[in-house]
Design goal:
By secondary structure, the protein is of the alpha/beta class. The strands form 5 sheets. A 7-stranded parallel beta sheet has the order 10-9-8-14-13-12-11. A 6-stranded antiparallel beta sheet has the order 15-3-7-5-19-20. A hairpin with a 4-residue loop joins strand 16 and strand 17.
């Protein structure tokens, strides 16, 4: 990471953004600005947990110093084949990139004391956190192994293993699980690109985002797979240098004029590149009007796109292409049709095939607007069944034993190994001999990160990493004899305990 640039201290600013401010809990309680209260609490890493995890710690208080291992996996995928893992590097830097301060701990102690005064759930081990500050240079003492961002994994395979003392593993479970969102977005955008190929996506859906941060994160997860270069979000274009701002027209613009010819012609005269929306009153009639104006202004070489946003958009697209053909206007640079209001990946595939069946090349003339399908639809943890499970203790390997075998994580210390000599992939244990490449590598240990590349370099190699690991998902997966034996032993122990 660049530490300074032309006198600007990048590292110092990063610390400023992530370090808990110099404020006591008593001072905090006097604040009446909700936004300020939220920003302060988000920076206190000790409070980034939930009562569930604190209660589990209280019930097992005598074991909190035991070293245990947890596994983070996505149990399902939107295509039933693979997930593209993304956001591991950012999640880990968010949690572990800034040291815990005494100010954070003192604040947390006072908060939980106040909870006790109200007879709420106040379980909290201040001594454990004090030990981290006093004995570990304020950084969390743990070891994390994870796959590199943009790796394709099969469902249920571990993407991350976390080894540390139990309470600390539990504290950050809610934060670490958030990797599911970016992984779902990355997976679905890649699926769409497999259908439409590259350079056919523009981003015009900032208004569907829950907040600005979600939209910026979403743009990042899509721009690698779509080779997204155009966005209507000015902030996104400022953050990501490869993006350019793009154009469109909206209903409120049309509704402010007396007639369609007036509003269409005003837009065409004032800009050289414009997308005209045609669904305010009657789409087919408006498609005819736009084509007439395109013909009128053809000599100016203006780029005038037709934007389809509702109703039977496939038929509208084919109708518009036929009308353009009749008027000798099928220039791929000037005669684009933008399609939005899509509900599924399968619908995109149907549109592509329908246009090809009508003897037009969708790759030349059809552009898709990135919409709420990719941003918010089915973007919940349940979509991929993200889980974070205990798989090993100092006493023995363990797991969640369930009647549903799909809900059973791999116990002990698992990894995923690719063996091209056998053309197979194996779920192995860490102490087995390495025979080729293992996908989970150490990325954090006792305060030190060891990511293979920086963020910008990761973006550059993302497609290479995906192509490589995606080809490996075609290999049949096996568990080594040792993994199978660990499963058997854990099952026997847990069933014996229940009996």
């Amino acid at each position: 990471m660049i530490e300074h640039t032309r006198g600007f201290n990048v590292r110092a600013y990063e610390q400023l953004l992530n370090t808990f401010p110099d404020i006591t809990f008593a001072q905090f309680c006097e604040l009446d600005d909700i936004s300020v209260r939220q920003e302060i609490i988000k920076r206190n890493k000790i409070l980034q947990t939930d009562t569930y995890n604190r209660t589990m710690w209280f019930l097992r208080w005598e074991k909190w110093k035991k070293v245990e291992t947890f596994s983070l996996s996505l149990r399902r995928s939107t295509n039933d084949k693979y997930n593209i893992v993304y956001w591991v590097q950012k999640i880990l830097k968010e949690v572990f990139g800034t040291p815990i301060t005494q100010q954070e701990l003192d604040f947390a102690k006072d908060f939980y004391a106040a909870e006790a005064d109200k007879w709420w759930i106040s379980y909290f081990d201040a001594d454990m956190w004090q030990n981290i500050i006093d004995s570990h240079n304020w950084y969390i003492p743990l070891e994390i192994k994870a796959v590199e961002d943009w790796t394709a994994l099969k469902p249920k395979e571990p993407m991350m293993t976390i080894t540390w003392i139990w309470e600390l593993a539990a504290v950050f479970e809610p934060v670490l699980l958030r990797v599911f969102y970016q992984s779902v977005v990355a997976t679905e955008t890649h699926m769409i690109e497999e259908i439409i190929s590259q350079w056919r996506m523009i981003e015009v859906w900032k208004r569907a985002a829950v907040n600005e941060q979600q939209h910026l994160d979403w743009v990042e997860a899509t721009m690698v797979w779509m080779w997204l270069t155009l966005t209507s979000n000015d902030a996104a274009a400022a953050v990501y240098p490869s993006l350019k701002t793009t154009w469109t027209t909206w209903h409120r613009y049309f509704a402010s004029f007396n007639g369609e010819e007036e509003w269409f012609e005003n837009a065409i005269q004032k800009v050289d590149r414009i997308a005209l929306l045609v669904d305010l009153v009657e789409s087919y009639a408006w498609i005819d009007k736009v084509i007439a104006l395109k013909k009128k202004y053809r000599h100016t070489w203006k780029s005038i796109a037709i934007r389809l946003d509702s109703w039977d958009i496939t038929d509208q697209a084919i109708y518009a292409l036929k009308k353009l053909q009749e008027n000798d206007m099928l220039d791929p640079n000037l005669d684009k049709i933008i399609i939005e209001d899509l509900s599924s990946v399968e619908q995109i595939a149907r549109i592509e095939k329908s246009i090809e069946f009508a003897w037009f090349d969708p790759k030349k003339f059809i552009v898709y607007g990135a919409w709420s399908l990719l941003l918010i639809k089915n973007k919940l943890r349940d979509t991929v069944s993200a889980w974070y499970k205990l798989i090993n203790t100092e006493e023995w390997p363990t797991w969640k034993l369930s009647n549903d075998i799909d809900k059973q994580p791999v116990p002990w210390l698992p990894n995923v190994e690719i063996r091209l000599e056998d053309w197979k992939r194996f779920v192995v244990q860490e102490d087995e001999n390495v025979q080729w490449e293992r996908l989970l590598k150490t990325v954090y240990k006792n305060g030190e990160f060891s990511f293979p590349v920086t963020w910008l370099r990761a973006i550059e190699r993302a497609r290479t990493r995906l192509a490589e690991t995606l080809s490996w998902t075609n290999l049949e997966t096996f568990e080594t004899h040792k993994t199978q034996e660990v499963r058997r032993q854990v099952s026997l122990r847990l069933k014996w305990t229940l009996s």
